[in-house]
Amino acid sequence: MSINHDCALGRLTAHARGIVSADLIADRELLPHPIRIADQVWPDGTIPTVSICCITYNHVSFIREAIEGFLAQETTFPVEILVHDDASSDGTAEIVRDYQAKFPRLIKAVLQTVNQYSQGVKPGVQTRSRAKGEFIAYCEGDDFWTDPRKLQKQVQLLDEHPNAIIAAHNVDGVDTAGNSVAIKGNDLGVNGKQVEFVTGDEVISGRHLPTLSILYRKRDIYVGKKGFRQVTNGDRYLFSMLAVHGGAIISSERMAVYRVHECGVWSGADWISQRRNKIHARIAICLDIEPSHCLPACRHLAEVVWSSIHMGYREHRMVCCREFAPAFVFSLLFCFRSIQAGVGFVPRLIATQLRIAFIPVQFTAKVAINKLKQRLSPGLAGGESSDCGSTRR
Domain for residue 62, yes or no? Predict the structure, then answer.
């Protein structure tokens, strides 16, 4: 049964909710208690608090589960669902069209007839430009949310932490058969806490944030010469640019599932393509981010480059020497951009360059320790989990 907005609507001030936040919160119109967004009725012209952005392409077997996860959300605020189908050829668009017909006030779909991604146009950028919400949440068409209060919890976390611009949480991984898969994001390392705040520089330094877990404050962010159109890892670029404006609040709760399958643009890509795209994204961040934040970006670039060389040198020696090794030198040179933020950054610049120069020694020592552990006890040295948290399209 739908709950009429005129009967149920109540204005809850920041004081009444017992949290410290911006004036926007006090101006929000809220329901007295969370209900399914599919059952909410708001007046025409109501501005959503959250915009859900969903990019899908040939996800006919998965898209229903993704959309049902959106519709199951229980909130006290209005939500819009923006779906962009990038000219699917397997029936995905027809499913999206049916859902839009059932929920025309809630679901706003763009159904492309020509694939935009192949034309060099990023559907994520297009969809984000359509978002009207104060916050933006991401979930691609082959992933899904499992907690009906996910959005409610994350908006509350950001309201309670005005110095955070991003909210994230742990996720689970499954394969196409529904079996659990270990992925990066199973444990975001919140140190036994229910929530943990990390600074913007920690995010820029590579703190992993699963894309399907993200909710962030909508901001006009600087997009430099490289920008989203030049990188495949657009999510990492976006998070770093957002982190200039604040940190991230991370929840230990598992509220979504990442699906690993061979058709994913990221999870289905070969190792060289994955590593090359990761490095290119970090180079773009180093070149485009504000000079006062470029040092953690440079250090992270160096770490990604050296880990790529370490993992791939035996089988992909030429790629490591011709492409990856020069990027390590770039990480040292890009540090000089920090001087644009003032001479006070010179000591930090020197310290960062020394840390970067020491990275190969750290990796070599780590490898030696792992080999020693394997000799002493074969079960002690753990393997590396899959890095499956990046945007696939």
Answer: yes
